[in-house]
Design goal:
Layout: E1 2-9, H1 13-33, E2 35-43, E3 56-58, H2 61-66, E4 72-75, H3 82-92, E5 96-99, H4 102-119, E6 123-124, H5 135-142, E7 147-154, H6 157-169, H7 173-182, H8 191-194, H9 197-211, E8 221-222, H10 230-238, E9 241-252, E10 255-266, E11 278-286, E12 289-296, H11 300-324, E13 354-364, H12 369-379, E14 384-389, E15 397-404, E16 407-408, H13 409-420, E17 430-434
Parallel strand pairs: 1-2, 1-4, 2-3, 4-5, 5-6, 8-10, 10-17
Antiparallel strand pairs: 7-9, 7-11, 9-10, 11-12, 13-15, 13-16, 13-17, 14-15
Bound molecules: L-homoserine.
L-homoserine (HSE) binds near residues 156, 157, 158, 187 and 297.
């Protein structure tokens, strides 16, 4: 039987998950591909006694990436320095690569994909976005006949796990984060999860393959979940909304909007009911309409499933190459569109983005403060959708909650500045974006 040799670089949560998956499912993988799959090398700093002794273990990742008995290099070490060097070395040695490294691709993907094209190899990255949900394959291949208008998703499992536990069980942020780390969901640096950076990396990949634009992580507006208070969660619920951390990529008339941030979405939407470590990505496409993809967004099993799906696809590429004697046989373009067709359409700065808002004002209980606030909003062309005034706190201060229809962020910034300048407004205005996710 023909065989394929794999190197697994990194034996953390994901690498160990890949080794275990292969052990558990090797027969199924062979039945599907017609190939015997062997892990010939693992790259690890510390020798592991729990690994099959026939697998070579080494800390010399560069040597492994170039070894003759390696066909596919699986990079699951994370980080952007060593990982980049190793992947480039593997590509130059004509190895296909599978990576789960969204931070690396978001920053250096354009360069890495161009190099892979030059050397006639593939860099596969299903595991980089939304864990086990095959969203890269769906957008790149299954939806290839569509023009995509927007993508919206809960794409950080750790963040969704924290928000869910806080909202449903009243647990403390720090405790839930520690649990997410213990469960292997969180990034090595968990600020990437809670500050929206990991979701921003993933969103830049989704936007590229949805719209056919180069990777532009530096233009993604990123805001995390650290400032979400339970008070806002409760008020949002009363108004019929759930707060989720979402990534959005919108096609607008004058450019693309790429942003990740906490968002009020109607309780009735499917995304509002995606809880725990689950991720979900909704795609609005023509002519398909809206479709939704759901599953585990982090963890060893989900991520290993995505890594091994890429390995299987590469085996089919290798097999097709062997049949035609052309080992550079073209595969799906890395960013879903052929490189010379990638568009340079502008990514809009945050000032030019449009969305609805939840505003929470803390005001002195004085005559006319509500009238002043609504006048400022209307003077700035902002349409109010709902307004709610709550009982005064013991301090005598009153919370006022306002929901607005979509407005240009520049106008909202100006209105908030004017509201905060009112004498009766005692604290900075809390603002959370709102999306209705209408078709
Ligand atoms: N830290 C990431 C998350 C892992 O929580 O979603 C999966 O990319």
């Amino acid at each position: 039987m023909k065989s394929i040799n794999l190197a697994v670089l990194g034996l953390g949560t994901v690498g160990t998950g890949v080794v275990n998956l292969l052990k558990d499912n090797v027969q199924e993988l062979t039945r599907r591909s017609g190939y015997q799959l062997n892990i010939t090398h693992v790259g690890t700093r510390r020798h592991r006694t729990d690994i099959d002794p026939t697998i070579k273990q080494s800390a010399d990742l560069m040597a492994i990436a170039a070894a003759d008995d390696v066909d596919i290099v699986i990079e699951v070490i994370g980080g952007t320095d060593v990982a980049k060097e190793v992947i480039i070395h593997a590509i130059k040695h004509k190895k296909h690569v599978v990576t789960a490294n969204k931070a690396l691709l978001a920053k250096h993907g354009n360069e890495i994909f161009a190099l892979a094209d030059k050397h006639g190899v593939q860099v596969r990255y299903e595991a980089a976005v939304a864990g086990g949900i095959p969203i890269i394959k769906i957008i790149r291949e299954a939806l290839a006949a569509n023009k995509i208008d927007w993508v919206a998703g809960i794409i950080n499992g750790t963040g969704n796990f924290i928000l869910t536990e806080m909202q449903q069980k009243n647990r403390k942020f720090g405790d839930v984060l520690a649990e997410a780390q213990a469960l292997g969901y969180a990034e090595a640096d968990p600020t990437f999860d809670v500050e929206g950076i990991d979701a921003g990396h993933k969103l830049s990949l989704l936007a590229s393959i949805a719209f056919g634009i180069p990777l532009q992580f530096d233009k993604v507006y990123c805001e995390g979940i650290t400032k979400i208070s339970l008070q806002d969660v409760v008020y949002a619920k009363e108004l019929g909304y759930t707060i989720k951390h979402l990534g959005f990529a919108f096609r607008r008339d004058h450019g693309f909007e790429l942003r990740v941030h906490p968002t009020l979405i109607p309780n009735s939407t499917l995304l509002a009911n995606v809880n725990g470590v689950k991720n979900a990505v909704m795609v609005d496409a023509h002519p398909l309409g809206q479709s939704l993809y759901y599953g585990d967004g982090a963890g060893a099993g989900a991520t290993a499933s995505a890594v091994m799906a890429d390995v299987m696809d590469l085996i089919y590429v290798i097999e097709a190459g062997a049949r035609t004697d052309d080992d550079t046989l073209a595969d799906v373009p890395h960013l879903a569109f052929i490189p010379e067709e990638l568009s340079d359409t502008r990514v809009l700065p945050s000032d030019e983005m449009t969305c609805g808002y939840y505003l929470r004002l803390t005001v002195k209980d004085e005559l006319g403060v509500l009238a002043d606030t609504t006048r400022i909003l209307s003077d700035n062309g902002i349409n109010i959708d709902a307004i709610m005034q709550r009982d005064a706190h013991k301090s005598g201060l009153v919370p006022i909650i306002i929901l607005t229809l979509p407005v240009l962020e520049k106008q909202m910034n100006k209105a908030i500045k004017e509201i905060e300048a009112l004498n009766a407004v005692t604290e900075p205005v809390v603002r959370i974006r709102l999306e209705s996710l209408d078709e």
